[in-house]
Amino acid sequence: MIKRVLLIVWAGWQLLLAVLCRPVQDDYGYLNLGSNSGFGSYLSNFWLQWGGNLAPSIIRIPFYSPSISGESWIGFGFYSLLTGALILVTSVWITTWLTGRSLGEYNSFDLSIGILTCIGFEGLFSPGVLSAFVYGSASSTHLLPICLLIVGLGLCTIELKNSLLRVFIIFVIFTISLVSGNSNASEGLAGVLVSYSLLITYIYKRSIYAKLGFQEIGRVVSLSLGISIGFFVIVLSPGFRNRANLGSGLPDGIQEFAVRFRSSFVSFSAEVVTHPVWILVLLVTTLFLRKNMLLIVWERSLALILVTFSVYCSLILGATFAYAAWHQSVGLLFLLTPAGVALARITITDLTVLSWRRMIEKYLVISLALLTLALVSRVTVLEFHQATKWDANLIKNYCLLKQDDHAMLLGSEVRYPPIGLGIEDVNTWAWMRDDYSKWVLSPRFTKKIPC
């Protein structure tokens, strides 16, 4: 009964976000290309000028296509729903794995952590929920590879007796890991670190490898190979080198490297400490579920924390050679909530809690729970406002462009104070305005708009 109620609440919220999905930021570029030059030429140009991470673009193309005409945003909404389902299932898979259960043996606690993982993207100063469920380009580039990495690792732990299935799952793992490794350089690097660490564990610490629940080494080899190929396709592409020399370029010496590293470290560390849900999970599990936490395998908790730390370090290093942006942390934020459970297991040594500490933590839990509710309400209301404003602006902007293709366009943004992080629009960036204009003025934009 509890699981059913939780699923209904989660599904209702996810459906609302999906219905409110509209094109944002990079989406205008895809819609412009789909309307004019075509996606094929875009992929070729991307390979030559921007990088070898073609997997996110290829995956997103079918979801963009229904919206080129401007008549429907069903592709954006469907992608949001699929992302939500992937996050929920993957998070549940992590918590069941921590206690040595299969995915089919999930309980209401696992489901609660999965739902909190979906909520946990939201931060105090950045709309992480939007980066996960609305800003599809960010989600497919930074969140999808981490989810697929976890799915690939999970498939390496499934017991299979049928020889044909065991061969087939190796192929599935390779395919999933190839997409994961080819989605973005930072997340691909994290996947390489994790998979090869697992291979080293198998060679030198076979007992720990067994405690982590992994099956035959062939699956892990397939995982490592797929991620490595995907990752090196990115870094060896001509576009990767060209993009590295655009904008600020590569660090010019040790001093500039240190400055950029410090900036990236501060940026991603701030993202971690300003997202309260994982801290709430840590406190609740430590305070109220101490006996349950002792059921978790200690080595698996440590492994999950190390995976999370690998993603954190890879993001910092990757941004040092490029740039740091709030939406890049969405894959790390996905891991933080289940990592909060793992951290609780690591820190619990006995079942006793001092009375004064229990009282302080209870007040802290209540405060964080109310804060989380406020954050979710804020981002949902703001997204509703953004979507309705975007629809109205589409009509106004279309008429403005029909009169003057250099007209100032109206934007619909969601930006959080005090830094102004969030979803930006055509009123802020010239490149967004250019792509947006070319899309709505193309012959394939067939939405009937009276001016």
Features:
single chain; 451 residues; mainly alpha; 20 helices; 2 strands; globular
List the SSEs and their pairings.
Layout: H1 2-19, H2 26-35, H3 39-49, H4 55-64, H5 74-98, H6 108-119, H7 128-133, H8 136-155, H9 163-181, H10 185-204, H11 206-211, H12 217-236, H13 238-244, H14 254-273, H15 277-288, H16 290-293, H17 298-320, H18 330-347, H19 355-403, E1 414-416, E2 421-423, H20 430-440
Antiparallel strand pairs: 1-2
Q: Could you provide a short overview of the structure?
A:
This protein has helices at residues 2-19, 26-35, 39-49, 55-64, 74-98, 108-119, 128-133, 136-155, 163-181, 185-204, 206-211, 217-236, 238-244, 254-273, 277-288, 290-293, 298-320, 330-347, 355-403, 430-440; strands spanning 414-416, 421-423.
Word description of this protein:
Strands 1-2 form a two-stranded antiparallel sheet. It contains 20 helices and 2 strands. The mean pLDDT is 89. It starts with a helix and ends in an 11-residue tail after the last helix. 71% of the residues lie in helices and 1% in strands. The protein has helices spanning 2-19, 26-35, 39-49, 55-64, 74-98, 108-119, 128-133, 136-155, 163-181, 185-204, 206-211, 217-236, 238-244, 254-273, 277-288, 290-293, 298-320, 330-347, 355-403, 430-440, and strands at 414-416, 421-423. Helix 3 (39-49) packs across helix 13, helix 8 (136-155) packs parallel to helix 10 and helix 8 packs across helix 18. By secondary structure, the protein is mainly alpha-helical. Strand 1 and strand 2 form a beta hairpin. The protein is globular and about 70 Å long.
